[in-house]
Amino acid sequence: MAETLLGPAEIRELAARLGVAPTKKLGQNFLHDPNTIRRIVAAAGLRPDDVALEVGPGLGSLTLGLAAAVRHVHAVEIDRTLAKALPETVTAPHLTVHLSDALRIRGGAFDPAPTMLVANLPYNVAVPVVLHLLAELPTLRGGLVMVQKEVADRLVAGPGSKVYGVPSVKLAWYAEARSAGKVPPAVFWPVPNVDSGLVAFSEREPPAGADRTDVFAVVDAAFAQRRKTLRAALAGWAGGPDRAEAVLRAAGVSPQARGEALTVGEFAAIAAAARLSVPGGKLSRSDAQPEEADS
Ligand code: SAM
């Protein structure tokens, strides 16, 4: 890895030269600790032939570490000043900067196609960004993201955990996730008032036999009322509690269970059973009807 990583003095100097005043709105807390950069790059498990996608390169701290480890880096930055200055800090020819909102970017925007997502994410949009990119970029084989510690705990939680919820199940659709450790506030400028956590993930085959949109609709409905039994929580989605019970029984899931106990495979079984029980159609919150669908 190149040893030209940015420390506190370089970060301050760069920010002053560019006239950058970090904003909370864009989650701008910049890493100024070379050891943390080395730790992130090592924990990501990158291969020299990987194509890294970094969301929010900021002043380029992590980008420098990534550029030394992989064959290409795509950096997606929403802040025009930062995006414009990045190629001056990271002079590698294998860097492509995309001035864009990561939540709106499409898979086709990248050539070569990214294989790993590695990012110190803007914390306010971290979960939607990860889920959006996994949906858009089937070429990703895995990644490592830094997020607020509580969000990291949620992303890696399994069934039965108090913090298991919508982000945990949706990430599990795409990937196996695990914690890669905690990061203290002192390594950022400005210092955030929260701890941070690293989440590593590797691509996995999604459960067979169900459509992702259908499964995510079940997950959203189940956790919208997480204290209720699935029979009650899925009533609106299924078109009534009796119908929810029938679908759950067909899927082999107890109607008395709660969403927080189910694996992503069980959510997929519920969506698949619902589809089978409505000839030619699918259930969703908006079109759930007891009678058969038209087409
Ligand atoms: N990677 C840098 C580092 O570690 O020092 C900066 C990380 S900072 C936590 C988050 C970065 O994401 C900022 O540069 C911010 O401008 C950028 N950002 C915020 N929202 C974004 C979005 N929707 N799309 C792309 N970049 C975004």
UniProtKB/TrEMBL annotation:
Top-level class of the enzyme under EC nomenclature: transferase
Residues covered by the Ribosomal RNA adenine methylase transferase N-terminal domain: 36-205
Annotated positions binding S-adenosyl-L-methionine: N29, L31, G56, E77, D101, N120
Pfam families: RrnaAD (PF00398)
EC number: 2.1.1.182
InterPro entries: KsgA/Erm (IPR001737), rRNA_Ade_diMease-like_C (IPR023165), rRNA_Ade_Mease_Trfase_CS (IPR020596), rRNA_Ade_methylase_Trfase_N (IPR020598), rRNA_adenine_dimethylase (IPR011530), SAM-dependent_MTases_sf (IPR029063)
MF (Gene Ontology): 16S rRNA (adenine(1518)-N(6)/adenine(1519)-N(6))-dimethyltransferase activity; RNA binding
Keywords: Cytoplasm, Methyltransferase, RNA-binding, rRNA processing, S-adenosyl-L-methionine, Transferase
One GO cellular component term: cytosol
Source organism, top-level taxon: Bacteria
Catalytic activity: adenosine(1518)/adenosine(1519) in 16S rRNA + 4 S-adenosyl-L-methionine = N(6)-dimethyladenosine(1518)/N(6)-dimethyladenosine(1519) in 16S rRNA + 4 S-adenosyl-L-homocysteine + 4 H(+)
Subcellular location: Cytoplasm
Protein family according to the UniProt entry: Belongs to the class I-like SAM-binding methyltransferase superfamily. rRNA adenine N(6)-methyltransferase family. RsmA subfamily.
Protein name as annotated: Ribosomal RNA small subunit methyltransferase A
Protein source organism: Actinoplanes xinjiangensis
Lineage: Bacteria, Bacillati, Actinomycetota, Actinomycetes, Micromonosporales
